[in-house]
Amino acid sequence: MSTQDRLDRGEVKLNSRRQNGVIQPLLTDLYQITMAYAYWRADKTKDTAVFDLFFRKNPFHGEFTIFAGLEECLKFLENFNYSDSDIEYLKDTLPTIDPEFFDFLRKLNADGITVWAIDEGSVVFPRVPLMRIEGPLIVAQLLETTLLTLVNYASLVATNAARYRLAAGKNVTLLEFGLRRAQGPDGGLSASKYAYLGGFDGTSNVLAGKLYQIPVRGTHAHAYISSFSDCEELKCRTMKHKETGEEQDFIEMCKNWKTELAPFFALMKEESSDGELAAFASYALAFPEAFVALVDTSGLLNFCAVAMALNDMGFIPKGIRIDSGDLAYLSTLSRATFERVATKYNLDWFRTLMIVASNDINEETIWSLNEQGHQIDCFGIGTHLVTCQRQPALGCVYKLVAINSTPKIKLSEDVEKVTMPGRKDVFRLYGGDGHALIDLLVQTGEPAPEIGSRVLCRHPFHESKRAWVNPAKVEPLYKMYWKDGKICEPLPQLVEIRQWVHESLKTLRQDHKRNLNPTPFKVAVSDRLYHFIHDLWLENAPIGELS
């Protein structure tokens, strides 16, 4: 039995957690290695640092983001070490480096790192650090690029998926169909995983289903229909009744139903393709309990004929998929047709047959379809979901905020790029109606805000923007997730994180989540942190001279 087979059976574990093999210390930018060498040469191997990982702007013109990728970051820390082949490659790539540095690099691991983080799946906002990384300067620096790549795309896709869920509503099924459009196989797998985390119900990606226990869904393509010419070519023609086991010529039943239903559709049966009927019937023979047909307007007759034949054999078909044309019109026409058939033949289930739409759909398409009163039960979404065409990157950054316990501030002419120095904790303050009011950053060690006690919340950079908040609930957002080489918190299953996304979004007022002109969610600092930031700013800002 191969190692892969044993991994699949759970007989072998890779440092207790499996991870994509491409996620390793060399999945980084070269300058992380060169900086590590320069630190080493400068005798900074004992220096400690604190880094904040955060983003500056919500994606997709919205006012919220979903934090994702934390579990992959923790797995990366578990497996962080440079292999012999890594060291040999780096020696070839950087031949002028002192060989003793590679001995130092070979012994590095993440045991000295401590990670504080917000729970994965939480709704988060700009400037609030998603993760705080503390520990040896060189190791913390070497983690930067890999942690960013694990969080950036994951959070972007999860946020995109959550926005689709808000647009579609809670009663519509959302399926991710993006593998063939994704940025390579790794992008495809990540998209499937984090689209599910963000609120989708399933994926067409079979490997993602296997690896992450995501429900997989799929029917057939146009190629399947085009491969049939007429019913006479079908060699497999019979089906056994679900209850009685009696075997009948299913193809002949479909043809008879087509003849009966044609006048009902105001069509001559010749106006509907016999090849399409053969394809539908053949697919129904293969999947009598999960029959979904890819149809256009003329295909409704053939679908209904096969559906009625399945009903005669004790089976209930699932529905249709529409992949082109005017989705609002076609879904409404299809639903009306199903209701007419249901009434004529007294079959209530026919009214509720599923209508799936999958025609290059984006978020705006769904909002437009909502306004048009569509009858779609399920959206299959690919390109716009997995490629995040509206915004291809989230823009998380990883900034040094303390070195050897000394707070550090990065100054910029662009105030949005000024960092908030030092170790910080973050609390979410809630109002009496249960909705989140504000995220408050405080200095670590500063007294936490208390329920029923007024706290002054200040904009970090604008002196006049401030407000008193009397919270009805105070939620600390950080947990210690990694220390002394171990994960410190139980990691939830993907389906549990998916549910947490739903619960976390419910804490926001609707105006923060609306599609058009959403209200920004406030992020503030305590009065003590505000003054600390500005005192350090003045300390570090150069003083000009006039002459």
From TrEMBL:
Enzyme Commission numbers on file: 6.3.4.21
Q: Where is the Nicotinate/nicotinamide phosphoribosyltransferase domain?
A: 174-419
Q: Where is the Nicotinate phosphoribosyltransferase N-terminal domain?
A: 26-152
One of the GO biological process terms: NAD+ biosynthetic process via the salvage pathway
Give the reactions, separated by semicolons, that this protein catalyses.
Answer: 5-phospho-alpha-D-ribose 1-diphosphate + nicotinate + ATP + H2O = nicotinate beta-D-ribonucleotide + ADP + phosphate + diphosphate
Listed transmembrane segments: none
Occurrences of domain Nicotinate phosphoribosyltransferase C-terminal (ranges): 423-532
Modification after translation, per record = Transiently phosphorylated on a His residue during the reaction cycle. Phosphorylation strongly increases the affinity for substrates and increases the rate of nicotinate D-ribonucleotide production. Dephosphorylation regenerates the low-affinity form of the enzyme, leading to product release.
Provide GO CC annotations from the record.
cytosol
State which pathway it belongs to: Cofactor biosynthesis; NAD(+) biosynthesis; nicotinate D-ribonucleotide from nicotinate: step 1/1
Q: Which cofactor does it need?
A: Mn(2+); Mg(2+)
- Give GO terms: molecular function aspect only: metal ion binding; nicotinate phosphoribosyltransferase activity; transferase activity
Which keywords describe this protein according to UniProt? Ligase, Magnesium, Manganese, Metal-binding, Phosphoprotein, Pyridine nucleotide biosynthesis, Transferase
Sum up the protein's function in the record's words: Catalyzes the first step in the biosynthesis of NAD from nicotinic acid, the ATP-dependent synthesis of beta-nicotinate D-ribonucleotide from nicotinate and 5-phospho-D-ribose 1-phosphate. Helps prevent cellular oxidative stress via its role in NAD biosynthesis.
What family is this?
A: Belongs to the NAPRTase family.
Write down what this protein is called: Nicotinate phosphoribosyltransferase
